[in-house]
Amino acid sequence: MEDPDLQNQGNQILSILLGKPETSSQISFKEFSDPSDMVTFNFKDNKIFYSSKQILANASVYFMRRFFGPNAKYDDDTIIFDDVTSENFNIFMNHIYHPTRVITETNLEIILPLAFTVLNLLIKCERYLLDTEKLFVDEKKEYAEKYDLEWLLSACNNFKEAASRYQ
After folding, report:
1. Which of 57, 65, 151, 164 could crosslink 69 through cysteines, CB 3.0-4.6 Å?
2. DSSP codes of every residue in 124-162
3. The architecture CATH gives domain 34-113
């Protein structure tokens, strides 16, 4: 990790997870760089990403179970992606490490297929779809059905039902 802001945010999250009091505004990321806490993501284009298992587990029940659940494997340190590009995964990971990043029309198509493992990110995508005026109700309903977005599906059905009363 080369980005100092990303390191600082990751360190703050890890401090909370590890129950360590934050003594300064900047903690050295090396304090948390225990190799057993890191996971490697490999892609077809030979790019490699590294991430903290603790940060991923904090963001996702899937990763919590995979890395720390009762069936977790001690040597589960490498994940290989054949169907996700490194560019798309980078955008996805930036939303995990920077949860205040905004969902946009551009990144929605990239994030939504990956967000099923990260509930907060999935909810952010669903809220974007609920609020955006850039898509028609039928388009929103397609997203709702494809990604099992119950609030969005309900809102689309309610809108269609209400609109049919006025026709």
Report:
1. 65
2. HHHHHHHH-SSS-HHHHHHHHHHHT-HHHHHHHHHHHHH
3. 2-Layer Sandwich (3.30)
How many whole angstroms separate alpha carbon 152 and alpha carbon 103? Answer: 16
CA distance 129 to 144: 9
Confirm if 111 and 91 have CB atoms less than 8 A apart: yes
Residue 162: per-residue pLDDT: 81
Write out pLDDT tens, residues 63-100: 999 888 888 887 788 999 889 999 999 999 999 999 99
Q: Domain extents for the chain?
A: 1-33, 34-113
Q: What is the dihedral of CA 107, 110, 112, 116, to 10 degrees?
A: -130
Q: Quick: pLDDT tens for 126-151.
A: 999 999 999 999 999 999 999 999 99
